[in-house]
Write a structure and sequence with these properties.
alpha/beta, Rossmann fold, Hypothetical Protein, Haloacid Dehalogenase-like Hydrolase, Chain: A, domain 2, 2 domains, six-stranded mixed β-sheet, 9 helices, globular
Amino acid sequence: MDFKDVLIVTDLDGTLLDDNKNIADADIRAINEFREKGGHFAAATGRGVAMAKRIIDELDIRTPCVIFNGAAVYDFKADKFLWHSDMPETADKYIRMLEKEFPDIGVEILHEKEVYVTDNNQTVVEHMAFEKLTPVYRKLEDVPKEGRFKVLIAYPPEKIHKVIEFTQEHCKEGVNWVHSSPMYYEMLPEGISKASGVRKLVEILGFQDKFVAAAGDYGNDRAMIAEADLGAAVDNALDSVKEAADIIVSDNNHAPMSEIIEHIRRL
């Protein structure tokens, strides 16, 4: 297949990034060759601007990307939002309910270019340290209303199922919940997902006639993979994600993107 006709959209954590949050040299070479031959390469990630920027810069990604798990399309080269969907007012009510039910819960509010922590716990501390980010600590009522794109609930993996059960019973109206990793559970605007974000990206770029390939590993990637012309799951993906995929490639520690690009080359 001619790479000029292809848009590849990939998840970052657990897919393009290995367990140490690095990108395999073989993947970097394959991505560079893909783009040199006219291909379009973008990320679709739960990360916001600040968390994704290092990776986007490292790969010199010029195509706008889907961030905040689908709540925004951002052009990192132009440093501007091309589209976004803000959290509804009901989000504050749900956060208050969770704070009351789970006093030790961690809450991060991902704003345009800031990460606000309204409820701190060890899972949040470890998250910020791992990402080398300094968040803004604020009370919920002091976080700016406009520009909130998602709420990340951070809780130990062995206990997060209780949060999931609670939200599914009490906190569903007007929002969409996604389980994005063993210790993170995210509240997004209603109707928002990586799949909807990729559809918006395709619309903005005028790529309706392009062949779209999508790669991922977790539940928040499943719909994006299922909707793509070529859906790829890494070998470390959840079984439900593999079931939605057209192909399964090596795990995130063994250069899976090079395999995806080679598969497309042979189509």
